[in-house]
């Protein structure tokens, strides 16, 4: 899916799971408050390439 920052998502997951001492709580709060909603909405949109 173009427009979804998969590398950044995977990178954050790796930090949270393996290097949790580096987790910035303010960054996590920003992601939860401001970025998860738009991402979820984007993922729910039909993929135009696969619906044709």
Structure description:
The protein is mostly helical. Helices cover 71% and strands 0% of the residues. The chain has helices at 6-18, 25-44, 48-51. The radius of gyration is 14 Å and the shape is elongated. The chain starts with 5 loop residues before the first helix and ends with a helix. 0% of the residues are buried. The model has no long low-confidence stretch (mean pLDDT 87).
Features:
52 residues; single chain; mainly alpha; 0% strand; 3 helices
List the helices and strands and how they pair.
Blueprint: H1 6-18, H2 25-44, H3 48-51
Uncertain residue segments:
none
Judging from the principal axes of the Cα atoms, what is the shape? Answer: elongated
Strand content: under 5%
Individual helix count: 3
Overall radius of gyration: 14 Å
Total DSSP E strands: 0
By helix and strand content, what is the structural category?
A: mainly alpha
Please state the average pLDDT score. Answer: 87
The helix/strand order is HHH
Relative helix content = over 70%
Cα end-to-end separation: 15 Å
The major sheet is characterized as: none
What is the structure about, briefly put?
The protein is mainly α.
């Amino acid at each position: 899916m173009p427009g979804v920052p998969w590398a950044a998502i995977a990178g954050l997951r790796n930090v949270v799971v393996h290097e949790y001492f580096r987790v910035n709580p303010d960054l996590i709060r920003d992601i939860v408050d401001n970025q998860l909603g738009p991402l979820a909405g984007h993922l729910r949109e039909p993929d135009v390439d696969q619906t044709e």
